[in-house]
Amino acid sequence: MDESGQPRSRTGEAAPDTDESTRRDQTRHADTEHTEATPAVEAAPTAAEPAPDTSAVDESAKDEPEKDEPEKDEPEKDEPEKDEPTAEAETGTDTDTGPASEPEAKPEPTPTPAAATSPAPSPAAPAPAPAPAPAPKPERSRGGIVMGRIFGVPIHVAPSWFLVAALITWVFGAQLDRILPELGALRYLVSLFFAVAFYASVLVHELAHTVVALRYKLPVRRIQLQFFGGVSEIEKESETPGREFMLAFVGPLLSLVLTALFYAGMYVVEPGTVPGVLMAGLMISNLIVAIFNLLPGLPLDGGRMLRAVVWKLTGKPMAGTVAAAWVGRALAVAVLIGLPLLTQSGALGGTAPRSVGMETVTDALLAAILAAIIWTGAGNSLRMARLRAHLPQLQARTLTRRAVPVSSDTPLSEALRRANAAGARALVVVDTEGDATAVVREAAIVGVPEHRRPWVAVSGLAQDLTAGMRVSADLAGEDLIDTLRATPATEYLVVEPTGEIYGVLSTADVERAFVKAMARSN
To answer: pLDDT value at position 351?
Structure first.
């Protein structure tokens, strides 16, 4: 065996005698059917190993080539020896585990059928490398139906929108029956048009937030239209309280502009007609959207404006978030109690109901849903602020695993032996000049049975490095999360600012640290 751990050529040795060759051929023939079932047995350790076992594999790596001596017409190096090093590796009694140990020094027992029951692949015909991991499935949209993109931002319509559209169609249709009874069944078609036009106004409201966010170079993941309006998912916080205030204020401002436009449209169309009723309805609905969003509590736009003001006064964004979140919770309680009372008293228009009926129950249910949304949104805003406060603890340098550089033709068993000796937990494939070219995937290592690892080169288990898979060791917090999100992978090469290899960053390690940070934020 040479220094690299590969078996030496035996072409210069004397050929075995005829009797020994005959027994060997009979042994092979007797075990043909058993070999068919061997992969199923070998695959069992894969499910039981959560991570590659470098402690026991290294010990067994030294004598693995001797398992294949019967395959190379060398009956003097037979199978019974494979049981001895395996037992030594499990107990840890064999300290000389170098892959360069000489098999010629071993005794030469006669091959037996029992020794051939689990033949290992021969070096002359190595077992094929494990199949590559399946390509990652595309992410399924959790935001509903994608209706298109505006300014590069996807527009999602949640399934709950169809429920509220049906509700608006039913309620507005009942009003049209009183105002324009001559429409008949066509009133529901007009009501459906009103529901779509109303949510188009909500979309314009959210686009105002999106345009300003993009102007401030804040990434926007998507715009989602849902049961109670819409939301622009901006992935980063504003850098200054002034920008935070403007980002929140443009939404209600544009809703007020739409209110003025529909109010002006009422003077263009004839009153008492379908266009007149639609203009009046859209004017009132946009005014309600503007006023509701200006209420000073998170997660509403008014709450973000309040957060910006407190942030400006105290110099602490966290103080602004806490103040706006608690005001939002108080607002949720006020909506839960106050909205049904205002409806019952007739303060919101119309006549006060004389008894408890279906309308009263509907108003109470609507108030409860609104209160739950505001309360939940305020709590989520507070948790996200606390999470961002803990995110700087996610540092690439502290989460990186120590790695050992190996050449592409290094056997997996030898690479794991070197990693175990160095106390490392990752493998990096380098070229002849020492530059990293690939990262050996942990999942691929687990998928290789231990007895095959001496015959599998690390190049077959590695993922080539792309530009996005090289991350700086100085990354931390949201910058680290954004970098990993831009190029999804299971492992990343971490480098120093000078370009020197620092180690390998596993996505699983980052996820565990992120979960701990979230637990601390609750």
So the answer is: 57
